[in-house]
Write a structure and sequence with these properties.
It is a single chain. This protein is α/β, with parallel strands linked by helices. Helices cover 46% and strands 17% of the residues. It has 2 domains: 195 residues, 2-enoyl-CoA Hydratase, Chain A, domain 1, CATH 3.90.226; 47 residues. The chain contains 10 helices and 10 strands. The strands form 2 sheets. It has a 6-stranded mixed β-sheet with strand order 1-2-3-5-7-10, with helices on both faces. The radius of gyration is 19 Å and the shape is globular. It starts with 5 loop residues before the first strand and ends in a 10-residue tail after the last helix. The structure holds coenzyme A (COA).
Length: 259
């Protein structure tokens, strides 16, 4: 599928989505958000693709935020609609049953940091910079940033970043648990592919259920422990578990069918 604001490529069964607005530091306008949704829907539906990498075009920015030019002249209800739309799309990313990794190659500010946080994992290049500078503009994060930042780095540090609007580098982000790994810029995509291949070598149903259980922890009205009991029960009845257990006993590598 051809997009106006995204470049997509499938290599070794991995979808690479590149946000392609380099001249605007890959900021997220409504077209990017819609196309991201489409690309993620297609990714989830396509069983031949085992994982996805999201990155930004060029070496300067992953995504430098939501497109500020679209905010002007909005009233309360338009602001809520915009935020809800971002939430819906980012929730799809977060709930994907297959791994989605943010390859953070430069500025990940505002909506860019929020997009990276919606991905399951974040691998940052040495030049990555993370931050939620919205208060400088008189707004707050609207694509889940106030929630996911707390979930990832804890309340104290999240409040610090959200209230000071400070930007942190890749190593600080890793120290805080915001970035999973920091690599040289030239190694960024390969590092993401390596991580996806490792995840994709395990039982796909088990991976999907890990995502469901972790999400349950953060979902109001759902007891994550009960979810885990349910999902564990479902896993032991899969062909993949039979294969995984037999392979262990027979001292060979398991071949998972995703059934
Ligand atoms: N929305 C819309 N346009 C943006 C943007 C955003 N979030 N971030 C950058 N751009 C545009 C700039 O307006 C500029 O466009 P122009 O060349 O037509 O004037 C272009 O991208 C390059 O950005 P510029 O600011 O000139 O680069 P810089 O190297 O001087 O600064 C940043 C880089 C990231 C520090 C700076 O662009 C910035 O602060 N961006 C906004 C970050 C932000 O507040 N994000 C949260 C938004 S809710």
């Amino acid at each position: 599928m051809a997009y106006q604001t995204l470049l997509t490529e499938i290599t070794e069964g991995i979808l690479i989505i590149t946000i392609n607005r380099e001249e605007k530091l890959n900021s997220l306008n409504k077209y990017v958000v819609s196309e991201l949704e489409q690309a993620i829907d297609e990714f989830v539906a396509d069983a031949s693709i085992v994982g996805c990498i999201i990155t930004g075009k060029g070496n300067k920015a992953f995504v430098a935020g939501a497109d500020i030019s679209e905010f002007q002249g909005m009233d309360v209800s338009a602001g809520k609609v915009l935020a809800k739309r971002g939430h819906d799309v980012f929730n799809k990313i977060e709930n994907s049953p297959k791994p989605i990794i943010a390859a953070v190659n430069g500025f990940a500010l505002g909506g860019g940091c929020e997009l990276a946080m919606a991905c399951h994992l974040r691998i940052a290049s040495e030049n990555a910079k993370f931050g939620q500078p919205e208060v400088k503009l008189g707004i707050i994060p609207g694509y889940g940033g106030t929630q996911r930042l707390v979930q990832l780095i804890g309340k104290g540090k999240a409040l610090e970043l959200l209230m000071t609007a400070d930007t942190i580098d890749a190593h600080e982000a890793q120290k805080l648990g915001l970035a999973n790994q920091v690599v040289q810029t030239v190694e960024l995509i390969d590092a993401c592919k390596t991580m996806i291949k490792k995840i994709a070598s395990w039982a796909p149903i088990a991976i999907a259920k890990v995502v469901e259980c972790v999400q349950a922890h953060f979902t109001d009205g759902i007891d994550g422990f009960n979810t885990e009991i349910e999902k564990f029960g479902e896993c032991v009845a899969t062909e993949d578990f039979k294969e995984g257990a037999s392979a262990f006993i027979e001292k060979r590598k398991a071949k998972f069918a995703g059934k």
